[in-house]
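Weekly puzzle thread! Below is a chain. First person to post its structure in token form gets bragging rights.
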Amino acid sequence: MFFEGRVGRPPSWCVALGGPLVCSCLTVVGYVGFTSHITPLVALAASASNVPTSFVLSLQHMSVVSAASVCVVVWLVASAVMIAFEVLRAESAGVVRLLEFNALAFYSQVPWLLAFVYVAWTYRSPLETGGMDVLAAGASVERLTRLMQEDPALVVVKSIGEGSTLWLHGLFGAGYRALTGVSLARAQLLALAVYGLPHLVRGVR
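Winning reply:
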């Protein structure tokens, strides 16, 4: 009902653009907090693996920069795919407002991202409390990565984040349906295809 009620209203671009921008800021804050915790562990593992610490730290900084743009990229890519689909259907009138509706959908991510920021700045992984001794016996970047991937708390956070992203794409589909009048099933199928596109690209790589 939210999107249906906005179809007849003029676009609110300032409000809409706040969605991806606020999410980008929260994502960066979370990544900075997480990176600050694991930097000593990364430095230890890098030195043991004969990998220049500066190189590993530069990769961490690049991940923060990527985090700053991921929400905007998801917004633009999802909107572009949906608009292109409508153009192929020869029903392109007004679909540019998909940019607005998809941007508004990002406000649904704010509660999750606030929780992510809290966890990133307060949670202490077992690696941070006892991980130095564990890694010192046979430290390596690969081992550190594996231990972090096996951390139950981080697995839960990653799973919740993936579910939140899926919910976001469901809202993309709801906005698409409100603007185009297609069936709910068809709109959600398109949204799921957009959601699966990055996973497919990573699988090919």
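Puzzle host: Confirmed. Bonus trivia for everyone else. Residues 31 and 64 are 6 Å apart (CA to CA).
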